[in-house]
């Protein structure tokens, strides 16, 4: 087994859980929020900045002014430096590339499928789920009123989509971008793990 | 095995081939263009009309006037009757519902995933593939110049997408609409068949 598995996921679809179980069964490293810690350490950028920008895309001039991404030139014009969110994307980009060089692993989110798209030894997976199941899953881990769940889930999906669509030339959640897409409501969490394992076997023998 | 498998597919992705092989292995009926014949027979609408409108969506007033879908009322206004393409969609809709009632089968295209979405015993699959593989596959069966292949493939994808997006409340090729999406370039034709078989097993045991 030498495949790197990337997992993109709808918010509340169980993608994290599927990736973690898969990594346990295959006895390979698992990276989700762990990437933040590692990127912060490798890049020297403060960890809190990573947490703030994690899978979020911020493109407002006001924001850039506030966090000081723009300074004034001698003649009074705005002098754009690289915005913090781009610095952070690039640091995560490097971390993901380096992790993949170390061998088989599971990487969740952070455009990893795009970052590693030129490696033939990756399997890119997208996990979706029906809204009712996502609501139930999110309600278990977040303290949110039931009538706010739908908006909360959609808002988080939108954040992930904006981040992905901005940094890649692809569209988040479009089937053709991924090797394999699974609806975890139809096939279950265990079923999704089993199916990804089967896909790895097939890909490694093709 | 009592699952009905619906296959949506990018043009030239091998979806037809995958569906046919799967049906052979599972020893269940396979329907692609066969639906046209059956719908024509069941509905009494001329088969040639089905062929003309197959997975195409035509919404132009001019077209409707030409084929006589609009007649004039006594006071000179346009009197819309049901356009032929909608009649044909509904006839195919009935045929697909009836075929599913007969038991396990593979149905390719024609919004079958949407038509049967309320049945729990279906597995909806979407097949995509890399453009180079699609070009090669299309070149083998159509007499088209190499420099025209890209446009020809995209035009046919667009037709399928327009048809699907018009008749359903979904978006063609969006991962979340399907139980399973497979890139046949990554996993191969045989691999895709194997993976769908595995997904059926998982779904039937869940």
In the residues of chain A, how many domains can be counted?
Answer: 1
> How would a textbook summarize the main sheet of chain A?
5 strands, parallel
The residue ranges of chain A in which pLDDT falls below 50 over 5 or more consecutive positions are 67-72
By DSSP (H or I, 4+ residues per run), the number of helices of chain A equals 10
What is the architecture of chain A at the second tier of CATH?
Answer: 3-Layer(aba) Sandwich
The pair of chains with the biggest contact is: A-B, 25 and 25 residues
CATH class of chain A: Alpha Beta
Task: Report the oligomer.
Answer: homodimer
How many DSSP-defined strands of chain A?
A: 7
C-alpha-based Rg of chain A, rounded: 18 Å
CATH topology of chain A: Rossmann fold
Mean pLDDT of chain A: 87
Structural notes for this entry:
- The structure is a homodimer of 206-residue chains.
- Chain A is an alpha/beta fold.
- Chain A is 52% helix and 14% strand.
- A five-stranded parallel β-sheet of chain A has the order 2-5-1-6-7, sandwiched between helices. A two-stranded antiparallel sheet of chain A has the order 3-4.
- In chain A, a hairpin with a 5-residue loop joins strand 3 (70-72) and strand 4 (78-80).
- The two termini of chain A are 13 Å apart.
- At the A-B interface, strand 6, strand 7 and helix 10 of A face strand 6, strand 7 and helix 10 of B.
- Strand 7 of chain A pairs antiparallel with strand 7 (180-183) of chain B, so a sheet runs across the interface.
């Amino acid at each position: 087994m030498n495949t790197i598995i990337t997992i993109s996921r709808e918010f509340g679809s169980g993608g994290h859980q599927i990736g973690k179980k898969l990594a346990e069964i295959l006895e390979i490293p698992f990276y989700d929020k762990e990437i933040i810690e590692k990127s912060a350490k490798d890049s020297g950028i403060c960890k809190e900045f990573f947490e703030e920008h994690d899978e979020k895309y911020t493109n407002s001039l006001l924001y850039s002014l506030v966090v000081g991404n723009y300074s004034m030139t001698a003649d009074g014009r705005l002098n754009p430096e690289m915005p913090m969110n781009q610095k952070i994307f690039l640091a995560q980009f490097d971390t993901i590339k380096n992790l993949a060089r170390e061998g088989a692993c599971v990487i969740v989110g952070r455009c990893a499928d795009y970052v590693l798209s030129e490696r033939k030894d990756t399997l890119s997976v997208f996990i979706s789920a029906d809204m009712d199941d996502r609501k139930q899953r999110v309600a278990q881990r977040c303290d949110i009123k039931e009538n706010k769940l739908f908006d909360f889930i959609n808002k988080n999906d939108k954040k992930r989509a904006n981040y992905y669509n901005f940094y890649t030339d692809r569209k988040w959640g479009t089937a053709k971008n991924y090797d394999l897409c699974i609806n975890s409501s139809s096939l279950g969490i265990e079923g999704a793990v089993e199916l990804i394992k089967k896909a790895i076997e097939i890909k490694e023998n093709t």
